[in-house]
Amino acid sequence: MKTIVTLLTLLGCLATAFASAPLEPLDGGAVQEVVQGVKIWSDRPYQLAAWPEMLKDHRLFYRSSIQSSRFKVLELGYVVVLTPNNEAYNQSPLLIKAGFKRVDLPAFQPYRVQDDKPGNICSAWQKQVYPGEVISFGFYGIALFSSKELPVSYSGTGKEPLLTIPTIDISGETGRHSFVARGTEKVYQGHVATLLLPDGKTMFAAWVINHAGHLGPLAKSTDAGLSWSEPIVVPDNWYQVKQTTPTVHRLVDSKGVERLFVFAGCDFPGRIQESYSTDGGKTWTPMADTGVGGECPPKSILSFDNGKKLIMWSDRRDPKDMNDPSPVVIQSASNDGGLTWGPERVLFHVPKQWAQPDVLRTPDGKKLLMLMRYSGDGPSLYSVSTDEAATWSKPKPLSLALTGHRHTGRFAPDGRLVVVMRDMAADYEGTGKVNPTRGHFVAWVGTVDDIVSGREGQYRIKLLNNFAPPDCGYGGLELLPDGTFVATTYIKYEAGPKKHSVVCTRFRLDEIDQKAKDLKQ
């Protein structure tokens, strides 16, 4: 037996990276075979110890330095990370945020240090991974790969998930990503909105510099968001509009005249301004006051009465009270295609600012659904109109699965609703449950019936990982003719000194459905 162990140790020490390894190291290192006695980190003389029987199918691990922990996934499978339980080195919060779950395995000591002393006691965390995904697991971790799934538990230091529906993580699949504007060490690319024109390929993106900063940047794509132009020249007074989060719309008046609009609000007391283009976005008018009070510009503008009337929605606090505890949601109508707007009509009061309403017409045309942010400790809200916005139901809480900031929704061709948002779902009742995607850019997929029935929906998608949670979202969502969704957000895209970027990611529901099916199996 001693001879066999010695031989295995020798084989382990001679192990080199496998030509067809399922993981690709991004910070140096190599994929090694799991053999007792093999060196576990490149910059420490620590060696693998005997492991529990449960890990017998995990034959490959990623050898790196203690501080280098990133790798790219090349095969569908499961990554298990062993992380020390001591407070100084434990990475479970990072792993939970990344979607890992605690494995139903007692903590153990997976390596030996000098003089054959046992190393840190570690727990195991598991996540299903997909080709193209990038995994970062923190310091003093050991990452394993297997095609087999281990049973997960929520005992011990593991936490039960806040939501019962699955979350499909595509945030690491960088081939889906394109950049409207990259952040630098000095420039923070901020809150963004998008517009897709009827040709199905021309898009516009409007955003700000700094967090809810000054208006100005506007870019165009002619290939459905795969590439973007340099910023378009706009009037100088755009840059004077500050503390804003712009929106962009295509509005058609009753005579069929089309105009493109960029709307901008401003922080308290709030005034909504607009600029428009009559030549397809080549030139724009200066920003002008609409006469409507509102802190966030309208995410939704819908057409009524066969195109004779447009309605926008916004929200505001009492102009005389910045600490107004009960702001209002308002709507305003235009009868000339958005050039002028009528008096505000208060729909209802909501707790806390900002509601930031997004309104969608259901596919059957019978209902209007309003999704609203709630800035307090609780779920987001929704309201329904069944009479073409004449009246609205009293706001009710959404499920935690749809709790977020600045909802933006689109209906898929099959009638399902897709909503992107800054995920803000949390354990408001103190149950100890966790939401690993809180503060990241996510999409919710379900139906209107799920919403009004209080169900969580079908699943959620982690679209992009945010390295400065919760500062992201305020996104755009467009549906291309082939069924592809293009979701755009401002986000801290990578660790390090570079500030926020404006990033697009794309997905199709049929492919996410398959990932959800694979995850369930």
Task: Describe the protein.
With about 525 residues, this protein is mainly beta. It folds into two domains: about 1-160, no CATH class; about 175-520, Neuraminidase (6 Propeller), CATH 2.120.10.10. It is about 5% helix and about 35% strand. It has helices at about 1-15, 90-95, 450, 510-520, and strands at about 25, 30-35, 40, 45-50, 60-65, 70-75, 75-85, 100, 110, 120-130, 135, 140-145, 165-170, 180, 190-195, 205-210, 215-220, 245-250, 260-265, 275, 290, 300-305, 310-315, 330-335, 345-350, 360, 370, 380-385, 395, 405-410, 415-425, 440-445, 460-465, 475-480, 485-490, 500-510. The radius of gyration is 26 Å and the shape is elongated.
Relevant terms:
37% strand, elongated, Neuraminidase, mainly beta, six-stranded antiparallel sheet
Q: What's a quick, concise take on this entry?
A:
With 521 residues, this protein is mainly β. It contains 4 helices and 36 strands. The protein has 2 domains: 2-159, no CATH class; 174-520, Neuraminidase (6 Propeller), CATH 2.120.10.
CATH class of the largest domain, named Mainly Beta
Mean pLDDT value: 87
Query: How many structural domains?
Result: 2
From the alpha-carbon coordinates, what is the Rg to the nearest angstrom?
26 Å
State the low-pLDDT regions, or none: 1-19, 154-158
User: How much of the residues is beta strand, in percent?
Assistant: 35-45%
> From the coordinates shown, what is the CATH architecture of the largest domain?
6 Propeller
- What is the 3D shape? elongated
The number of E-state strands comes to: 36
> Can you list the strand order of the major beta sheet?
2-5-12-7-10-8
What class, by secondary structure content? mainly beta
Give the N-to-C terminal Cα separation: 39 Å
Major pleated sheet? 6 strands, antiparallel
- Range of helix content: under 10%
